[in-house]
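Any chance you could type out a protein's amino acid sequence plus the matching C-alpha coordinates because I've never seen that pairing?

——
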Amino acid sequence: MAEETSTKRPAIARIWRGRTKPELADEYETYNYEAGVKPLMEKALGVQTFREDRDGESEFITISYWESVEAMSVFAGSDPTRIHHLDRDPEFLIELPKEVQIVRLLVSHGNVGTA
Protein backbone atom coordinates (compact mmCIF):
# COMPACT_ATOMS: atom_id res chain seq x y z
CA MET A 1 0.00 0.00 0.00
CA ALA A 2 2.89 2.39 0.67
CA GLU A 3 3.87 2.15 -2.99
CA GLU A 4 0.36 3.04 -4.10
CA THR A 5 0.15 6.19 -1.93
CA SER A 6 3.70 7.30 -2.77
CA THR A 7 2.59 8.41 -6.25
CA LYS A 8 -0.36 10.41 -4.94
CA ARG A 9 0.17 14.06 -4.02
CA PRO A 10 -1.61 15.69 -1.07
CA ALA A 11 -3.95 18.47 -2.13
CA ILE A 12 -6.21 18.71 0.94
CA ALA A 13 -5.46 18.98 4.66
CA ARG A 14 -8.05 18.07 7.30
CA ILE A 15 -7.31 19.77 10.64
CA TRP A 16 -8.80 18.59 13.94
CA ARG A 17 -8.30 20.37 17.27
CA GLY A 18 -9.15 19.26 20.80
CA ARG A 19 -8.25 20.49 24.29
CA THR A 20 -7.67 18.59 27.54
CA LYS A 21 -6.86 19.50 31.10
CA PRO A 22 -3.07 19.37 31.63
CA GLU A 23 -3.32 16.47 34.08
CA LEU A 24 -5.03 14.35 31.37
CA ALA A 25 -2.78 15.37 28.47
CA ASP A 26 -0.22 12.55 28.61
CA GLU A 27 -2.90 9.87 28.88
CA TYR A 28 -4.95 11.47 26.09
CA GLU A 29 -1.89 11.72 23.85
CA THR A 30 -1.37 7.96 24.11
CA TYR A 31 -5.08 7.17 23.71
CA ASN A 32 -5.51 9.53 20.75
CA TYR A 33 -2.55 7.96 18.97
CA GLU A 34 -3.73 4.39 19.48
CA ALA A 35 -7.46 4.91 18.83
CA GLY A 36 -7.42 7.82 16.40
CA VAL A 37 -4.11 8.42 14.66
CA LYS A 38 -3.11 4.82 13.90
CA PRO A 39 -6.35 4.04 11.98
CA LEU A 40 -6.07 7.39 10.20
CA MET A 41 -2.52 6.57 9.09
CA GLU A 42 -3.91 3.56 7.18
CA LYS A 43 -6.17 5.80 5.05
CA ALA A 44 -4.55 9.24 4.69
CA LEU A 45 -1.50 10.08 2.59
CA GLY A 46 0.12 11.44 5.76
CA VAL A 47 -0.68 12.47 9.32
CA GLN A 48 0.95 14.97 11.67
CA THR A 49 0.10 15.44 15.34
CA PHE A 50 0.91 18.44 17.51
CA ARG A 51 0.57 19.28 21.20
CA GLU A 52 0.76 22.68 22.87
CA ASP A 53 0.78 22.84 26.67
CA ARG A 54 -0.58 26.12 28.02
CA ASP A 55 -1.73 27.36 31.42
CA GLY A 56 -4.88 25.41 32.24
CA GLU A 57 -5.08 23.29 29.09
CA SER A 58 -3.24 21.26 26.49
CA GLU A 59 -4.30 21.51 22.86
CA PHE A 60 -3.91 18.66 20.41
CA ILE A 61 -3.96 19.17 16.65
CA THR A 62 -4.10 16.39 14.09
CA ILE A 63 -3.54 17.21 10.43
CA SER A 64 -4.19 14.55 7.82
CA TYR A 65 -3.37 14.92 4.15
CA TRP A 66 -5.52 13.70 1.26
CA GLU A 67 -5.35 13.70 -2.52
CA SER A 68 -8.92 15.08 -2.79
CA VAL A 69 -12.08 15.82 -0.84
CA GLU A 70 -13.55 12.68 -2.44
CA ALA A 71 -10.70 10.53 -1.08
CA MET A 72 -11.16 12.12 2.35
CA SER A 73 -14.90 11.39 2.20
CA VAL A 74 -14.18 7.66 1.85
CA PHE A 75 -12.69 7.86 5.36
CA ALA A 76 -14.79 10.65 6.90
CA GLY A 77 -18.16 10.00 5.29
CA SER A 78 -20.27 12.15 2.99
CA ASP A 79 -19.62 15.24 5.14
CA PRO A 80 -15.83 15.35 5.66
CA THR A 81 -16.19 18.24 8.15
CA ARG A 82 -18.22 15.99 10.47
CA ILE A 83 -16.38 14.90 13.60
CA HIS A 84 -15.97 11.23 14.41
CA HIS A 85 -15.40 11.34 18.16
CA LEU A 86 -13.34 8.60 19.72
CA ASP A 87 -15.15 6.54 22.36
CA ARG A 88 -13.29 8.14 25.27
CA ASP A 89 -13.19 11.74 23.93
CA PRO A 90 -15.95 12.91 26.33
CA GLU A 91 -13.83 11.64 29.23
CA PHE A 92 -10.74 13.58 28.14
CA LEU A 93 -11.72 16.66 26.16
CA ILE A 94 -12.77 19.94 27.74
CA GLU A 95 -15.42 20.25 25.03
CA LEU A 96 -16.17 18.06 22.05
CA PRO A 97 -15.16 19.75 18.78
CA LYS A 98 -18.09 20.37 16.45
CA GLU A 99 -16.22 20.33 13.13
CA VAL A 100 -12.85 20.07 11.48
CA GLN A 101 -11.16 22.55 9.18
CA ILE A 102 -10.49 21.56 5.58
CA VAL A 103 -7.97 23.58 3.57
CA ARG A 104 -6.32 23.24 0.17
CA LEU A 105 -2.60 22.59 0.20
CA LEU A 106 -1.11 25.11 -2.20
CA VAL A 107 2.62 24.44 -1.88
CA SER A 108 5.06 22.75 0.46
CA HIS A 109 8.73 23.72 0.83
CA GLY A 110 11.63 21.81 2.36
CA ASN A 111 11.52 18.55 4.25
CA VAL A 112 8.47 19.31 6.39
CA GLY A 113 7.27 16.30 8.31
CA THR A 114 10.25 14.06 7.65
CA ALA A 115 11.77 12.83 10.86
